Structure formats: C-alpha cells, structure tokens
C-alpha cells in the first residue's frame, strides 16, 4: 500500500531524480538500494505458505534472503513436504491468482516482510522431453509394423509381404522421416519454457498419436490399398508440398531456438531471418504450425486416405487453438507486435 | 446414457450447479423454455398414453413400436434443440450432446434401421423408461421455470433414476445385442475395402465398441446423479419448511 509495485528488472526504469533511499520499497526498508552504494544491512524476509483451498498453514520459512527466487523457495518448501517436488508446486500471491514464475525474486514482489504465498498442487509431473520422445517414438514404430505387415495385422497370407505400389514405400519414408525429425528436434533443437507437464497428459497424448498412427498405417499399408486417383502427378505434387513444409517447419524451429539463449527463458518477438522459409513470420505468428498443417495436407494428397485427412483436420484444429493463444500472449506482452500477423493462416485465422 | 436424468440440458432457469445459484434469463428465453418444456412434457405423455392404449387393446407388445414410432421420433429428435439451449442456460454442451446423441442413435440407427428387433421386449423396456424419465424431467424443468416446484416432482426426479437408469441401460444394451446378427448378415452401414478413400467402417464392430463404452460411462453418470440427489434432497430436508 503506497509502495511502488514493479517487476524484477524494471528498477532501472525509475527516473534518476528519485532517490531510492527516500522511497519505501515493499519488503520493508531496502537498505541496499539499487544503483547506489550504501550500507549493506540485509533484511531477511519471512515466508509463509498456505494451502490455496483450505488456507491451512503448510510451511513457515524464516530468514529468507531478499534476493531469493521462487525456485529457491520451492526447494525450501520441498524439504518440509518431500512429496511436493518443485515441479508440481504452484505458488501464487492470491489463492486464485496466477502462478509466480521460478525466476521471480522475492523482494521484487508486492509483499511485506512476511510474504504469504498460496500453494496449489499441480499433480504428478512428467518432463516435456519424456512426453515428446514417447509420443513420437510410438508412431514411428507402429507405422513400420504395418508397413512390414507383421503377423496378426492383416490376413496370414500377407504376413511380411510388401506392397506393390511405389507410393506406399514413399509414404513410409515420409512418415518415418517426419517422426525422426521430431525426435531429433526434441533432443537437439527445442528449448522448453516449462520443464514439466501433468502426468496424465502422456496417456492422453500417446493415445492420440499412437491411435491415429495405427489407424492411418493400417489403410495405407493394406493389401487392398488404392493408389491416388491422379497417379504420379498427384504423388509428385504431394511430395513437393510435404518436403517444402518439412523444411519450413524445421527452419522455424531453428529460428525460435536462436531467439533464446541456452538456459534462459527470455521471450522475444520472432522475426524473419535470411532463410526464406522464415519469411512466413511476416504474415503469421506461428508459422511452425502453418507448415505442420501443410505437411499433413501433403501427406493426405500423397496417400489419398481419409483417416490421414481426419488426422490433419484434428491437428489443424488443435494447432489453431494453440496459435490463437500464442498470438494473444504475444499481443499482451509486446506493444510493438506487428499488426499484419494472424495466428496460423495468413489473413484468415 | 440415453436414459440418464442428467441435468445437462438445463431447461430450468434455476441451475442445479454446486453453488445452487439462481440465474436469470431474458424474458424471451424464459418464455421459449417454458413453452418447450411444456410441449415436451405433453409429447411424452401422449407417447406414454399411446403405448398404454396399444397394450391394453391388443394385449401384446408386438407392433407397439410401429404404432408409436412417429410420435417417438418427432419428440426425441426435437430434443436436439437442448444442445442449443445450453448456450442460454450455461450448461455443458458436451454432456447434453452426448445424451441427446445416444437417444438419437438408439431411435434412428438401431430401432428404426433394424426393423427385425422392433418387437423385442427390450425395446419396450427402454421406451417405458424413457417415457417416465422424460415426463418427470420436463415437468421438473417446467415447474422450476415457473418457480412453483411441487416437492413430489423434485422427489421423483431425484429418486426414479435409481431404478430407471439401470433399467434403461439394460433395455438399450439388450436391444443392440439383439440387433447384432442382423447387422452382420446384411453388412449395413458398412464400407469395405478397396475404395478410393482408403477407409473402411464395420457397423457390427462399431456396435460392439458402443456396447463396451457403456462400462466406463454409465457408472460416472449414475454416481453423478447420486451425488446431485444427496445434495439437493439432503439439503432440502434440513432447510425447507412445509408449505
């Protein structure tokens, strides 16, 4: 009350004429003002953590350094409640407020010398990397099972036979390439903002990816598969679209990686680079999703298979939702966000 | 489930949500909902009477479905509107959608399409269950909208389901099961390979999957209704004075 509220890192935005010593920071006297050498009497904070639903006092920490981050506080909390490891803790200033970030510094929060945080259990967590690797390895393997016509999938007389259609071999190569690319990107390209997600997501996600992969693969590799109506022309066009979009998608992933230095969680507006595939950033907030839908449209045309079309459609709907969310958070965070951009489809969506 | 008494359609202006908050609707919306619920109550009453008359006059259930099918189809199909009502009364589109869809499915894709099972006893079972359920449900919503809810209607809505719901599920499952041989023989609603869309659909196996899906779904809806019952009727006993 009466104190200035500001976020970590904005202290330098104060006008130079304001003497830091004359203002009361939240968190009591700041005897160590920024930008001015003064006596370094460190004032410790006290932190109490309450359950957000029951308001029960779960933990009391005294002698917490003012520069302590939320991450460090979470570690301290885990010591008294080991079943709640930091990844499943959500600490907030209000019971229904938004979660504080791990990097937030205690003294920069609008709290008194005794800080009260509300705790919500996010449930068992699993790392994003683990989820991605599992959900992508599945389709890669499952498709190959159908491609090689492993027993019990088709009739016994087809076991371990090969399709006589060239497009079926091409489709296998494309599908496998796609998922190998995804696995490699997960390991070497992507930089994840969050370490973990709720455990139940892995069951949901794997059911989706593995289920659709099996459904698609069954028909494409079926002995009674019907090749595309317009023959080689259709397949060539589809392959061109597919490869173009795979390259595009990869380019965007690399560009996004380069936006953010290793280990940091900074957020910046992505811009087109010298790579022409990234020029789609001029029109769209999430060109990686645009290219991904494009790849699957290519694969649909190549295989002329209705389950593939349905998978593309469902994927598009999901990615459109994600793109809208991302677009909105870009708009919220950056005043100077380019107005021409749409979330996922240039000018339309 | 088709015979569920889930409040998903939310056709009352008084919501039965956890917090019991009353929500006010516009005058036009309220008028429409009152009309809708009265009409549906009447429709299912007519259906019930028609079924009773048939049985009393003929002494058999054979041919009963054929004689009442037009009324059944009309009023059950009209209930699709309840999905739209969700937008106005702020209830779950998903839950309502699932319920109405399962009813539509039973009426059109089982009973109507597979004529050989129309004289099965299980059909009469679920028809009777649906009739009693819907008359109770729609009159409950009607009285709620009019803010004059007789206790016995509320009691009926929250107690009948205990028997009706499992009975309805039994009727539906037995009917689908009876239909299986005819579906297999005729290969109806099925698409075989090869075809230019490279997809296939086997209605027979689809029906088997539908039957299995009752296993996870039925207990959830049933337990939900039991919880609602405890909340509504239990709270009622403590708080309400006699009129």
UniProtKB/TrEMBL annotation, chain A:
CDD domains: Ubl_TECR. Keywords: Acetylation, Endoplasmic reticulum, Fatty acid biosynthesis, Fatty acid metabolism, Lipid biosynthesis, Lipid metabolism, Membrane, NADP, Oxidoreductase, Phosphoprotein, Transmembrane, Transmembrane helix. GO terms for biological process: fatty acid elongation; sphingolipid metabolic process; very long-chain fatty acid biosynthetic process. One of its GO terms (cellular component) is endoplasmic reticulum membrane. Its EC number is 1.3.1.93. Residues 45-121 form the TECR-like N-terminal domain. Gene3D superfamilies: Phosphatidylinositol 3-kinase Catalytic Subunit, Chain A, domain 1 (3.10.20.90). The chain crosses the membrane at residues 126-148, 207-225, 237-256, 276-291, 297-322. Pathway: Sphingolipid metabolism; Lipid metabolism; fatty acid biosynthesis; Lipid metabolism; sphingolipid metabolism. It comes from the Eukaryota. InterPro entries: 3-oxo-5_a-steroid_4-DH_C (IPR001104), SRD5A/TECR (IPR039357), TECR-like_N (IPR049127), Ubiquitin-like_domsf (IPR029071). Belongs to the steroid 5-alpha reductase family. This is Very-long-chain enoyl-CoA reductase. It comes from Gallus gallus.
TrEMBL record, chain B:
The chain crosses the membrane at residues 33-56, 158-183, 203-223. The keyword Transferase does not apply. One of its GO terms (molecular function) is very-long-chain (3R)-3-hydroxyacyl-CoA dehydratase activity. It catalyses: (3R)-hydroxyhexadecanoyl-CoA = (2E)-hexadecenoyl-CoA + H2O; a very-long-chain (3R)-3-hydroxyacyl-CoA = a very-long-chain (2E)-enoyl-CoA + H2O. One of its GO terms (cellular component) is endoplasmic reticulum membrane. Its EC number is 4.2.1.134. InterPro entries: Tyr_Pase-like_PTPLA (IPR007482). GO terms for biological process: fatty acid biosynthetic process. It is found in: Endoplasmic reticulum membrane; Membrane. Keywords: Endoplasmic reticulum, Fatty acid biosynthesis, Fatty acid metabolism, Lipid biosynthesis, Lipid metabolism, Lyase, Membrane, Transmembrane, Transmembrane helix. Coiled coil: none annotated. Pathway: Lipid metabolism; fatty acid biosynthesis. It is a multi-pass membrane protein. Catalyzes the third of the four reactions of the long-chain fatty acids elongation cycle. This endoplasmic reticulum-bound enzymatic process, allows the addition of two carbons to the chain of long- and very long-chain fatty acids/VLCFAs per cycle. This enzyme catalyzes the dehydration of the 3-hydroxyacyl-CoA intermediate into trans-2,3-enoyl-CoA, within each cycle of fatty acid elongation. Thereby, it participates to the production of VLCFAs of different chain lengths that are involved in multiple biological processes as precursors of membrane lipids and lipid mediators. Belongs to the very long-chain fatty acids dehydratase HACD family. This is Very-long-chain (3R)-3-hydroxyacyl-CoA dehydratase. It comes from Gallus gallus. The lineage of its organism: Eukaryota, Metazoa, Chordata, Craniata, Vertebrata.
């Amino acid at each position: 009350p009466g104190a200035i509220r500001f976020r970590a890192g904005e202290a330098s935005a104060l006008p130079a004429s304001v003497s830091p010593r004359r203002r009361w920071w939240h968190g009591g006297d700041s005897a160590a003002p920024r930008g001015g050498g003064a006596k370094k009497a460190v004032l410790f904070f006290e932190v109490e953590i309450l359950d957000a639903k029951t308001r029960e006092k779960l933990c009391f920490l005294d002698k917490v350094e003012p520069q302590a981050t939320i991450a460090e506080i979470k570690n301290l909390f885990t010591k008294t409640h080991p079943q709640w490891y930091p990844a499943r803790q959500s600490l907030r200033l209000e019971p229904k407020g938004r979660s504080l970030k791990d990097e937030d510094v205690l003294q920069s929060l609008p709290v008194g010398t005794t800080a009260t945080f509300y705790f919500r259990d996010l449930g068992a967590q699993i790392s994003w990397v683990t989820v991605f690797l599992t959900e992508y390895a599945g389709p890669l393997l499952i498709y190959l099972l159908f491609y090689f016509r492993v027993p019990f999938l088709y009739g016994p007389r087809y076991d371990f036979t090969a399709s006589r259609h060239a497009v079926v071999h091409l489709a296998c190569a494309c599908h496998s390439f796609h998922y190998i690319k995804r696995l490699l990107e997960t390991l070497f390209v992507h930089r994840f903002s969050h370490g973990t997600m709720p455990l139940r997501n892995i069951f949901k996600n794997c059911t989706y990816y593995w289920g659709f992969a099996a459904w698609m693969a069954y028909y494409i590799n079926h002995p009674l598969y019907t090749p595309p109506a317009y023959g080689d022309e259709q397949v060539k066009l589809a392959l061109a679209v597919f490869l173009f979009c795979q390259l595009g998608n990869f380019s965007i992933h690399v560009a996004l990686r380069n936006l953010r230095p290793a280990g940091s969680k900074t957020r910046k507006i992505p811009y087109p680079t010298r790579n022409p595939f990234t020029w789609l950033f001029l029109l769209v907030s999430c060109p990686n999703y645009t290219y991904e839908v494009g790849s699957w449209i290519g694969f649909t045309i190549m295989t002329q298979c209705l389950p593939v079309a349905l998978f593309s459609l469902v994927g598009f709907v999901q990615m459109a939702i994600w793109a809208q969310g991302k677009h909105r958070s870009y708009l919220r965070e950056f005043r100077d966000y380019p107005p021409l951009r749409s979330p996922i489809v240039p000018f339309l969506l | 489930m088709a015979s569920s008494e889930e409040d998903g359609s939310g056709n009352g202006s008084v919501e039965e949500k956890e917090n019991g908050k009353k929500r006010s609707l516009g005058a036009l919306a309220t008028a429409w909902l009152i009309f809708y619920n009265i009409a549906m109550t009447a429709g299912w009453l007519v259906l019930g009477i028609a079924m009773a008359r048939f049985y009393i006059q003929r002494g058999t259930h054979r041919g009963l479905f054929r004689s009442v099918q037009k009324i059944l189809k009309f009023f059950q199909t009209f209930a699709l509107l309840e999905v739209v009502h969700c937008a106005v009364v702020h209830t779950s589109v998903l839950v309502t959608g699932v319920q109405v869809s399962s009813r539509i499915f039973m009426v059109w894709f089982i009973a109507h399409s597979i004529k050989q099972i129309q004289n099965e006893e299980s059909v009469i079972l679920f028809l009777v269950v649906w009739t009693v359920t819907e008359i109770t449900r729609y009159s409950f919503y009607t009285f709620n909208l009019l803010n004059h809810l007789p206790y016995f209607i509320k009691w009926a809505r929250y107690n009948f389901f205990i028997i009706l719901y499992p009975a309805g599920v039994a009727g539906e499952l037995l009917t689908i099961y009876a239909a299986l041989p005819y579906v297999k023989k005729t290969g109806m609603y099925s698409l075989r390979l090869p075809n230019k869309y490279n997809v296939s659909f086997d209605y027979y196996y689809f029906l088997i999957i539908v039957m299995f899906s009752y296993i996870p779904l039925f207990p959830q809806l049933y337990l939900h209704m039991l919880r609602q019952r405890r909340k509504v009727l239990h709270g009622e006993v403590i708080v309400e004075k006699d009129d």
